[in-house]
Design a protein that fits this description.
Elements (H helix, E strand, L loop, with lengths): L4 E10 L8 E12 L3 E8 L1 H41 L5 H32 L7 E3 L1 H9 L3 H5 L14 E3 L1 H19 L1
Antiparallel strand pairs: 1-2, 2-3, 4-5
Helix pairs in contact: 1-2, 1-5, 3-5
């Protein structure tokens, strides 16, 4: 039989004019079957929530990747410098020059990799907060729309106080925080 309540997310993409970025809008469609043979459909624009989730996922991948690449770099550099220190007095002529060039190359390449990793990590950091007045209750209500099924099943209940003063914050980053809190809460009670 047909489900009484359902939810589906989908993306609408519009080809942009030459030189402009392609526009993608993410919508959440929720529906309910109503008697007799009626349907209720609700569209919610969740583009900013999805965008924030993707940005956070990218930042986490970049952070982990930077950490994994950076970890072996210091031991590599220290090992090369130790070889130079141990073998410097035991080699002469061309062999000593080869050792110096090789160690210098290793150290220079390690430093270049460390700089690259630092730049990569910095690039992937969250953008600077765009502070503006935010109605936190309205923002939370927007995110709660994503959890309509959980609310319908009684797994999630929310009471939002209306009329609170606006806070100064970054709406996109705050949306992600609320989403993470709700997702973590649902996972904790599952």
């Amino acid at each position: 039989g047909e489900r009484d309540h359902w939810q589906e997310a989908f993306e609408l993409a519009r080809e942009a004019r030459a030189g402009a970025p392609r526009e993608v809008q993410t919508l959440l469609l929720r529906g309910a079957a109503l008697p007799p043979d009626a349907r209720l459909l609700v569209f919610d624009d969740i583009t900013e929530v999805v965008s924030a989730q993707r940005a956070q996922a990218w930042a986490e991948v970049a952070r982990r990747l930077a950490h994994e690449i950076r970890n072996p770099l210091t031991p590599i550099q220290l090992s090369a410098e130790r070889l130079r220190h141990k073998l410097h007095d035991k080699l002469a002529g061309n062999e000593a020059a080869l050792l110096e060039r090789s160690v210098a190359t290793i150290v220079a390449q390690v430093q270049a990799m460390q700089q690259l990793v630092t730049e990569f990590r910095d690039y992937a950091r969250l953008p600077a907060a765009q502070l503006q007045p935010v109605d936190l209750a309205a923002l939370a209500a927007e995110v709660l729309v994503l959890y309509g099924d959980a609310q319908d099943r009684g797994q999630l209940s929310a009471r939002l106080t209306e009329g609170l003063p606006a806070i100064l914050g970054d709406a996109t980053q705050l949306r992600q925080v609320v989403h993470n809190l709700l997702r973590n809460a649902l996972e904790a009670v599952a």
